[in-house]
């Protein structure tokens, strides 16, 4: 989730356990502690472009790291914010732990994937219930926290947290509706999917990108689940085959290892880019949900040495045509 939303949710829960005298300070500690786990984005390498993919939402987002991470936050925030307000260090640590604990769980409701049980497991939990940015989720929390401070009442903070939980549960319901519609669409095509996932499109829980895997291809569709269900049939692409698509790739080379790293990150949803035969794309994400137009990819080089890494690229489809297609689905035009 975006850092602002993470901070606001952490503040709402920390304030929910405070009183009106401690409301502002408890909320400030919870807000800053809840944003802290995303400092893992600073873990990067100039020579290994995939390192940040592996490090993001890893150890700082593990449930086992909450006591350590929140303690480090408390060490700083107690002396910056809380001590002058008469807080004990235990109180500061408590509010930091409450705020810090919301981060990984909220991230798990998105579709990126969060390693909740690292180092015991490298599995990325992605419950696909909410977009990484969703104003309808964030703005009510912001307004209610503002009221909590103005009115000096924890009631509004508790309502803010309740709204967050309610919206996430609604996202789960919407996801299940989209998946059910996706299975039905595949059945109509006489497809028998190996696996199928529904992911919220950008900033809403109305329009979903449904991706399913057949024996040799991935199929993507957009499905709008409002009062009724509406399908927007999409595209398909052949699944990646290294022996077919990259016959020159040397097994055991760094590029081959990087493909496997990217495969784990992408949950296997890989294909060769039809517009660039040296590029491997993550099929799961696109701006227009019924298109195969990736948000990120890796690019190989036939002339690379055994120790050379792949190149990583982020693609931002911000064309007016794509925006209009997306809005037409969202607004049901």
Automatic annotation (TrEMBL):
GO terms for molecular function: hydrolase activity. The keyword Hydrolase applies. PANTHER family: HYPOTHETICAL MEMBRANE SPANNING PROTEIN, MEMBRANE-BOUND METAL-DEPENDENT HYDROLASE. This is Metal-dependent hydrolase. The lineage of its organism: Bacteria, Pseudomonadati, Pseudomonadota, Gammaproteobacteria, Vibrionales. Keywords: Hydrolase, Membrane, Transmembrane, Transmembrane helix. The keyword Cell wall biogenesis/degradation does not apply. The chain crosses the membrane at residues 59-81, 93-113, 125-148, 155-173. It comes from Vibrio paucivorans.
């Amino acid at each position: 989730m975006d850092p602002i939303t993470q901070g606001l949710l952490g503040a709402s829960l920390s304030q929910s356990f405070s009183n009106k005298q401690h409301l502002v300070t408890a909320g400030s500690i919870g807000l800053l502690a809840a944003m802290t786990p995303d400092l893992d984005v600073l873990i990067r390498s100039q020579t290994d472009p995939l390192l940040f993919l592996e490090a993001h939402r890893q150890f700082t987002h593990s449930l086992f790291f909450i006591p350590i991470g929140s303690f480090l936050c408390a060490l700083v925030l107690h002396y910056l914010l809380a001590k002058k307000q008469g807080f004990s260090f235990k109180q500061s640590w408590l509010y930091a732990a409450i705020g810090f604990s919301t981060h990984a769980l909220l991230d798990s409701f998105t579709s990126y994937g969060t390693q909740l049980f690292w180092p015991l497991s490298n599995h990325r939990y992605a419950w696909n219930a909410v977009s990484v940015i969703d104003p309808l989720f964030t703005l009510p929390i912001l307004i209610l926290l503002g009221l909590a401070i103005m009115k000096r009442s924890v009631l509004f903070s508790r309502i803010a947290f309740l709204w967050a939980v309610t919206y996430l549960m609604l996202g789960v319901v919407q996801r299940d509706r989209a998946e059910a519609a996706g299975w039905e669409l595949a059945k109509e095509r006489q497809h028998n999917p190996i696996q199928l996932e529904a992911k919220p499109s950008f900033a809403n829980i109305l329009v979903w990108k449904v991706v399913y895997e057949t024996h040799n291809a991935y199929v993507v569709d957009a499905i709008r689940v409002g009062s009724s269900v509406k399908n927007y049939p999409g595209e398909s692409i052949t699944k990646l085959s290294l022996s077919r698509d990259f016959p020159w790739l040397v097994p055991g080379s760094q590029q081959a290892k990087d493909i496997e790293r990217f495969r784990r990150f992408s949950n296997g949803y890989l294909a060769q880019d039809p517009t660039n035969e040296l590029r491997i794309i993550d099929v799961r994400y696109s701006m227009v949900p019924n298109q195969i137009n990736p948000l990120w990819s890796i690019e190989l080089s036939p002339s690379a040495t055994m120790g050379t890494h792949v190149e990583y690229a982020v693609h931002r489809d911000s064309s007016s045509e794509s925006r209009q297609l997306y809005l037409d689905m969202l607004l049901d035009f």
